[in-house]
Amino acid sequence: MAVTQPSSSPTPHELGYFMPAEWTPHRATWIGWPHNASDWPGKIGAVRWVYGEMVRKLTAGEAVCILVRHPAEAEYATSHLRRAHADLKRVHFVMHRTNRGWTRDSGPIHVVRRRGRRRDKAIVHFHFNGWAKYNNWKLDTRVPETAATFLKRPLFDARWQGRPFVMEGGGIELNGAGTLITTEECYQHPTIQVRNPGMTRADYAATFRKYLGVSNVLWLRRGPVGDDTHGHIDDICRFTDRRTLVLIRETNRRDENYRPLAENWERVQEFRLEDGTRPEVVALPMPAPLWCDGVRLPASYANFYISNAQVLVPTFNDPQDRVALGILGELFKDRPVVGIHAVDLVWGFGSLHCLTQQEPA
User: Fold this and answer.
1) CA gyration radius for the chain?
2) What are the distances in angstroms from CA 43 to CA 160, 221, 345?
3) pLDDT tens-digit map of 5-26
4) The CATH number of the domain covering residues in 3-360
5) Positions marked active-site
6) Over the stretch 141-192, which tens digit does the pLDDT of each residue have?
């Protein structure tokens, strides 16, 4: 059984825990098998085949823990994965009824601490609430509890002023050395999708420090049109190493994304890392607008996932696919950068990073 730390106990930071960067070695990647057809209207079958390709690539370098609702769903998923030639010896099914499959936001966020040659691991429960927008989240918000029990890890209950602290994994980006980036649109908008009413930027910085061990919080303005999470950073700006950021840029002045993304470029010039130095910032292009049934989708190359064996990058049948893969290939020297067709995935308003959550080695 997982041991939930009472709110009066020392915080993860006080105990020496911190959240490592995504590029550090993983034991596993966590995903949730897709079952909610309303997430991908008319495309759920195609999406399951994309999952098979994802798991095939992930199992080349690490285990994959897949949340399924019942044993029959595990058997169904296995049939897809077998035909995709995934390494089934590295697939572990975890029984947990879920509402949806966006494991980056509802899944277990792991923290670690070094004790000599040993690393302790724990999970922080950040109380997912459907992005303060949807009402089908009460199964998803318990995923960290199930993961802590499955892994036999301590579970920290994130709180602010005695209330559950709401935060999604897609809303934060860390370099593992003390710096975290997020957006005002997501966590500081006064009226739209308000996760934690009354929290100031200083309150967020203090709470991130308590539970993730960061000392330096940086704020961009907002994200691309179509993101129903209201400004998740993982569609906007990502670390590729401790000192290097990629930041999406729209060059077409007539595109509705041009101005908001340009504002981020103005703001990033003032960024300083935890040691006071400027990060290197590399532009990542945007694909041409992608639409489905009259709805603009949040297609972004920044929604890549760094696995042990390779960096998985969403592609959109766009000429900029090759440009984005080339830029990221120059930045990740220690593992190959590969594209995953994401046109069907992004119809669910998310992509590869939104679906995955790393578990540190």
Assistant:
1) 19
2) 39, 32, 8
3) 666 689 999 999 999 999 999 9
4) 3.75.10.10
5) 354
6) 999 999 999 999 999 999 999 999 999 999 999 999 999 999 999 999 999 9
Backbone angles phi, psi at 304, to 5 degrees: -80, 165
Instruction: Say if CB 124 and CB 55 are below 8 A apart.
Output: no
Compute the distance between CA of residue 188 and CA of residue 3 in angstroms, rounded to an integer.
32
Residue 182, SS3 per DSSP? strand
- Token pair belonging to 179: 């710096």
pLDDT for 8 = 67
| 289-308 mean pLDDT | 95
At position 145, the amino acid (one-letter code) is E
For residue 56, the Cα-to-chain-centroid distance in whole angstroms is: 20
Q: How many helices (H) and strands (E) does the chain have?
A: 9, 21
Per 3-state DSSP, what percentage of the chain is helix, strand, and coil (rounded to 5)?
A: 30, 25, 45
Residue 1 has pLDDT above 80, yes or no: no
- The domain locations on the chain are 3-360
Sort strands 244-249 and 280-285 into parallel, antiparallel or unpaired: parallel
Q: Which pTM value belongs to this model?
A: 0.96
Neighbouring-strand partners of residue 315 = 341
Nearest-CA neighbor of 147 among 115, 103, 112? 103
